[in-house]
Amino acid sequence: MTGKQFISTVKYVAGTKQSFSLSEIAVYLDEPQSVDHMYATLLPHLAKLGLTAEKTGGDYEISRLLPSPAYCLNAAEEQRLGEYLELRTLPPALEMAVEQYITRKTGKDWSDPVILERLRRAIVSQKDDYWKPTDKRSLQYTKGYSVLGYLAYHFPVYVMQTRHILAQLAREGLLKREMTILDLGTGPGVIPLAVADFWSYLDTTRAMVWPVERSKEHIEAFGALVQSVATQNSHVAIEPPREADIADPAHIPLPERVDLMVFSNVLNELAALPVAARADLVIKYAERLAPDGTILIIEPAEEATSTGLRVLALALKKRGLTIYAPCTFVWGTNCTPDRCWSFQTAPSIRPTRIMNMLAACSEPFRYVNTDIKYSYVMLRKDGKTRSSCHIPKDTRAPRLSKIHLNVGKRITVVAAKMSEDLGDNETHMFRLCDGSAEKPVYAVLPAFHITPENRELGSAPYGTVLEVRNVLVRYNPAHDAYNLLVSRDTQVIPHSCKEKNLIKI
């Protein structure tokens, strides 16, 4: 019996029994196999089959795993969450833990002028490396002051942005009462520490976090920070990091079933791998994703990296995953992502004590990092999307792929708002996408044209699908893009995203 036939047999038996011993499968096999060999064959498929395995003596008990119910926020949690997101400072215990780690690691107080100067040099070096072409970057953060510089400059923003992402997952019903979270490329523990902090504001949900990291320096920092902070939350258990390269999943011990799989600021650093290979890597890990689990990929908002994430997301969509957010494919088509620079923003954080000390020099702007800007994609196996949006039958709206046929005309479009304000105080500008555009499309709203009927363009959250009525189409040759000119006569309405009847123009 081939491996494929073996898996099909297990699937059949699981469909007839709630649980069974793996040795029971032996009667179906052409040749005898040990239960350990059968288990090794079955292990990569357990999550996909919705099964769990538990060793019992010399056998394995295979059971259908009932999914943990979605976690719904109650009114008190919603209120706490709103107040929590208004906090713009790093948790005090975590800020102190970073300071203490730098002090312990260097043998001098973190505020010593010599230490501060070394941190400045490390930060400048990292920033210079970051702006190189993707294939020329090192971005390893693996040695001495490179890790300490990361903790001083990047770490606070990444922890705080994770707050907003976790809040989004919670509010959209993507968290469960019992969560297994796999953090691939954890660094010094941004995701586990943010999870421990966030979960302390929830009442009953519990999480187990499995981090993976290859850098010994990061693992050392991880141990110090988690030990001093995360152990205070009994609702979250954090496993010690698996020391491994995420590019080699075959040799990493992983949980059988993952509810949330996170790649935070790591896939863009695999510059040696082409997009197809990175997509294959994610798909390999997705074998462990629960049928109702979520894959979260986060990348910096820098143009090349952000655009690269959209290209990767489309490659994953073509391999069978569904893009839950932020993209909405109004027409059910695949997009053209090579020029899709789209990112989320959140309120800036307040500088940490370390940042303020670093900024006490002739070029303070170099050492203060407070802006939260990031690109992300959430993917699913079960076909679930944030908005299954289609244009109602009574709305005549062209696809944005046909925008070139409407230059000089006033039209209605239905598309998602895929940027915050890219303009200035005089002229506001927002990127729009319906999943079909071949060239960038922007809605342009002069400040003196803002009315109650069109102000939703500015106030609607990132990713919201909008119906924009009566806009004038212009081509912008300088940027090879199209502008939709919003005037006082334009109406902007959040789209219901319920109808499925399309009128194709």
Top keywords for this entry?
3 domains; Rossmann fold; alpha/beta; 505 residues; 14 helices; OB fold (Dihydrolipoamide Acetyltransferase, E2P); Arc Repressor Mutant, subunit A; nine-stranded mixed β-sheet; five-stranded mixed beta barrel
Q: Could you characterize the architecture of this molecule?
A:
This protein folds into three domains: 3-64, Arc Repressor Mutant, subunit A (Orthogonal Bundle), CATH 1.10.10; 75-380, Rossmann fold; 400-494, Beta Barrel (OB fold (Dihydrolipoamide Acetyltransferase, E2P)), CATH 2.40.50.140. Strands 4, 5, 6, 7, 8, 9, 10, 11 and 12 form a nine-stranded mixed β-sheet that branches. A five-stranded mixed beta barrel has the order 13-14-15-17-16. It has a three-stranded antiparallel β-sheet with strand order 1-3-2. Helix 5 packs across helix 10 and helix 6 crosses helix 7. It has 14 helices and 18 strands. It starts with a helix and ends in an 11-residue tail after the last strand. With 505 residues, it is of the alpha/beta class. The chain is globular. Helix content is 31%, strand content 22%.
